[in-house]
Design a protein that fits this description.
Mean pLDDT of chain A: 94
Number of helices of chain A: 5
Number of strands of chain A: 8
Strand order of the largest sheet of chain A: 1-5-4-3-2-6-7-8
Radius of gyration of chain A: 16 Å
Largest interface: A-B, 23 and 23 residues
Structural class of chain A: alpha+beta
Oligomer: homodimer
Largest sheet of chain A: 8 strands, antiparallel, barrel
Distance between the termini of chain A: 30 Å
């Protein structure tokens, strides 16, 4: 079972952040459009249980992702199950149909342009995502995916990198929650 | 949206059935082991709603299948969503983990050896499955997958083929229901 250790921050000036990442030796990938469709569970109120299930379209690639409840107060650390689906629009629709047949309903959609970078920090390779989120603005996410035994070290690493990049006012709410406040 | 039109029959003498299929020009494939794991829904009692969700392992190949309620009294006609998963034991376990995280629980397992044949009948290609089901015995299934507009013609076709093959005492219960009577 793997966990994602993640922190998210609003970004006032993306150019400054890009410069700091470049100074750390990170290469920033080109932009990719991501469309996430989130689903409500047939029996659980995910806004209370702090879980999520979504289908992500990234170009032609599709993924299904479950996120468990956040397990600490400072970061967005949580269990994550991220599985590839067959590619293409038709497959994404078929999978949406399967979830709907099981009683899941579409809860909302998040569209963003994401640029990824990877930073070597404290002996780990941290994934940084520079996001321009439709109707929300600019954000940066820092993420490690680790086994439970590494959770504390991963949190320390991500928080230390955030400080070095000048990121603060960590945002624990998801983009979906920011777009659709309860 | 596609439906499966299916009839299932107990088979007293598989050799006789094989001869009749051969006389119709059908070729019977070699045996394949299939392991189906069925799941209970977190909020719906599938034994009441007459639905099913399962993960099938067929050699290294994996599939996830949803079956809707049966919509007539004579056959097992029902909506079906059948989607491929990535192959291998690890993928099957990851998908089981995803369903369990969403509150689905394992309801039972059906293991069988299946030999498939295809029969041209009334202008359609009917799939026949010759099954040796662990702890249940020998069965034959006849199946067409069709769009809603073709449902009546498909039912007529399958029932006619069953009669021509000498199959009777149609069994509408699933193997899971036969193994785990409510």
């Amino acid at each position: 079972m793997t966990y994602e250790v993640e922190m998210k921050f609003p970004v006032a000036d993306m150019g400054v952040l890009e410069s700091r990442l470049a100074a750390m030796g990170a290469t920033i990938d080109g932009p990719r459009q991501e469309v996430d469709v989130y689903f409500a569970h047939p029996a659980r109120d995910f806004s209370r249980t702090d879980e999520a299930i979504r289908i992500r379209r990234k170009g032609q690639a599709n993924f299904i992702t479950y996120k468990g409840p956040k397990i600490d107060a400072a970061t967005k650390t949580r269990r994550e199950i991220d599985l590839p689906l067959p590619p293409g629009e038709e497959a994404a629709q078929a999978w949406t149909g399967l979830l709907e047949a099981l009683g899941f309903t579409v809860a909302g959609e998040v569209r963003k342009t994401r640029r990824k970078a990877h930073v070597e920090w404290q002996g780990r390779r941290v994934e940084a995502s520079l996001d321009e989120v439709d109707r929300l603005g600019s954000f940066a996410e820092l993420e490690l995916v680790v086994e439970p035994a590494e959770l504390d070290a991963a949190r320390t690493c991500v928080m230390s990198l955030a400080a070095a990049l000048g990121l603060d006012h960590g945002e624990r709410r998801s983009y979906l929650e920011l777009l659709h406040p309860q």
